[in-house]
């Protein structure tokens, strides 16, 4: 022990001298002997710190503290260490510990010194909560406080006299410390709130911001210590009054906010009780705290405003003269007639407000206090008393919402306040546009009465609802109950007596009602300011007398009522009825004035309004009818939002308004008004008719049909419904149904002119529809029927003559587009009748020559067009009612004349271009805003004046830029003048507007042709013929381009036949529409020849020849003559095809005769063809010499043209070969050899010669035929033989010899030459299968791929080959069989496909 003490002394001495190494060594030695030696650890810490070994120093101090935590030496050392290292939180902890250690040893000075350091460190380096923790050690509830109290009082004159001045001051007066704590906590809670809200808002799935704020507020305020410190300030003896008021306000605000965010629980009730206790104390003491007083006033749960403590309100006025609530309270006191103060000697009397200004003051205050329940109560009371029920409803709803919010914030119900708002809302709904809101009002009032069965306003309101629904007994019971509750009340009580008497009247007790009303009237006479009530009671007395048929007494009562209150509208209404129905004589003028006065005073006087509307309607004052209807609707609340279940009170007004809107073409508004009208009167047949008409005009045709069918079911004998249904059916292009409907009307009303006109129009439109669909025979019947019905209508009635003549003219004009009329007799009868009328007309100078030469047996489309023009001109002679009719008449005539000119009728010189333009200019002048007339004018100028045509089209586009026809016509104009770019833009614009408009596509096709893009043009024409609506020109163009491409190609005949099928069908359609188009007939004939319909081809071309012959006889045009020759040449060839050789010779003789000695290229071709076909015909007729002469003539005619010579040589060789016999066949071979020698590239001759060699097994001939071809370079050979005919001949030659391997080798050579040729690969695959090389065949077929291009027959052939190859290659599964079945499905007529299926099935089974 002595050595330990010596070493401790040595360490202490070394530390005192600053010799920290020696001290360290001594301390270590001591600790080696006694590890728990406190002083040694302390010295070790001091020495280590002196040597800069801070971690070792801290460890030594910590070990010393573990040995003796109550000794200050180690704490002082470690405190110094933390101060040097800046570990402020640990430094503060050590200072706090030292303060407590010195407190335990009653060393007040050192305790205070360390506490002061602790507070300073927290303020400088730590957070607000650590500062609060440190400051709280100064307060009386601190465990340090008893020791610190022993400090002497501070000397404010000499604060540096002690080291503990701050602690002495805090102990002497703790109020500043508490204030500082409050200030710190307030700032801390505010910043914590902001940070926490921002953090939570950024989380995924975060709730609404209001919810987040409420959650954070509750978390902070529920754990806040501020109320504790607020109370300390309030209870502190040094607190000033000003600070006390401020702190009270803060404590109230804190508790109020906590209450508002606290969820419903016991805690909320506790907070509410604490807050109420505080508020009541402040109110009792009359302390000036506006928030508390406002809280108290808003929290009063009373039923009526009379239950408020007026003294509290007046005290509020005293305390807070400039508050927003002050004006509210002052205004209501003035409105209620109460003085603002009862103390006339008050030192600060509140401002006074006049009664006249009270309403504005209350309303302004209500707007300034958006959350005030009191303001809503006062406002709704004012509105309700002033009978402003609309605003009362709005404010009552707002008041209920504010009450709900108040209940939520304060955590307790306000049943009386809620009941008051419900009563105000329910009773206002009762009187606001009754009975519109009675259903809602009844629910509210019943809810009030369930909790307060004697609530008088609710009983009265429910009784009024029952009165409105004519439940007089139930209403009387409620009024009787009110009378029992308030027998002497001069307001609700006496009104209940009056209403009870009114109920008695409607219950049939007129005497009782009259007596009771008399008693009520006497009582009212003694009361002031009850003029309205007096007038109403007298009026009701008059109604009692009226019901008793005492009209004079009733009249006196009505007059007296008006004397009491001159603006009582019901009395005026009944006076009007009296003057109209009772007075003798009746006085309609006075009655009308009474009705007008009544309706002017009160828009709810529906009886007066209806009588006024009826009188205005009789006078045809439709604007006044609309005014009355609209004001009547306003009187029943019609200007408010219309709900789907709204039932109108005055259905007639809604119907009248609907008709007005219908006439103004405001169809949605008309439909809505008529629908509302029918809700009130669902059996109003006229209303359903009008609704159907509105639906139809709005384009809602299905709804229109339903409405009109319902109207017809209500009144089956009303033919107007059937008529309107037919009109809707016509609008939807259901003409068959429309015609049936109209004819059903005519069965009962055969002379109804309007129906006849509609029926004629329906037949006309039906015919137009049928014509556009290609049903020409049906269209003829419809047009003729339209004309006949129009005749019937004119015979029945002379009216509508202009309309009927237009129908006749339109029918004839559309009929004229049918080139071959079928109903000739019926049409002839119509034209004969029409001719008689037109010849008698003096004012048709243009068309009289056209119809004058008509003969009944010569009916044609052109004749019909003549009569259409004449009828249009005849129509003009009737004159015009207006500019629109004038424009229509001139437009129709101009279009008809333009159509007539377009048919090249040159013999009628009177129909000039100027006359057409004149007609269309007249139309445009009469109606310049009609776009169709500008289009027609542009069409008239199309060929003669491009600038005028463009101007007309552009003018039409200005009127309607979305007219597809205008854009198309403009494009055609540009195309005609070779401006392809502008034309293309115009056509594109038209296609954007209507992608199915065929004429725009036709223009695009023509533009493509003009650019040389023939394939694109053909595709466009193909698209046109597939549209629902087509045009003949597109059919012809498509057929021509397709035929030209196919014929000029080198496809196999089978492929040619299948490819020309579309052309066959479109030409068939075209020729039905235009049967006299010789070019189309000729083309159709050639198409029929290619597809194998030779008889039809002969029939068509014969008809074309007849038309050409007629035209040539008329014009003797050389072009027509040449067409006639070509047609006869083709006819001769076709007759050979059907075996009519004599007829062929006749046709060909005609051709040769027409050609004569003309040596032109085309004539030479025709002559050569004619000689050659003549030779074939003679050969078939047995004239061999004549045939040979003709063949020789053909050769001579060909001259030096190797192509023609080649064709003739080949055909001649074929003819010689067909004769049989060695001599003929040798001649055929010689002919071909001679041809090949002169034209080595004539592939057809080479192939034919090789074929002859194959048939005769003459290898030398085959080699001689193909030697020249096989010796050519590969690229040149491919160019000359693109379809590999030579290779095919060689393959067939080897196959004929039975040498399949060599045939396959030859096919492979072709593939080497053209490795991309699918045709060669398929040929090689077929040969490989024949040579039992299924694997090679499958490889070749796989390289071809699964493409389905080509005809179905070609695709079926590929599938069949693949099926056989896979089956022979031992392919597992059912894939070969599926391929074979698919091939049969694609080409069911193929024997090869069925054979393949049988083979594959047999192979698969094996």
What would a concise description of this structure say?
This protein is mainly α and 1406 residues long. The protein is flat, with a radius of gyration of 57 Å. InterPro entries: Ski3/TTC37, TPR-like_helical_dom_sf, TPR_22, TPR_rpt.
Protein model, in words:
The structure is a single chain. The protein has about 1400 residues and is mostly helical. About 75% of the residues lie in helices and about 0% in strands. It contains 74 helices and no strands. Helix 14 packs antiparallel against helix 15 (about 265-285) and helix 26 (about 490-505) packs antiparallel against helix 27. The protein is flat and about 165 Å long.
Poorly predicted regions are: none
Helix percent reads: over 70%
Proportion of residues in β-strands: under 5%
Mean pLDDT: 81
The total count of helices amounts to: 74
Inertia-based shape: flat
Distance between the termini: 118 Å
Radius of gyration: 57 Å
Strand segment tally: 0
Describe the sheet with the most strands. none
Overall SS class: mainly alpha
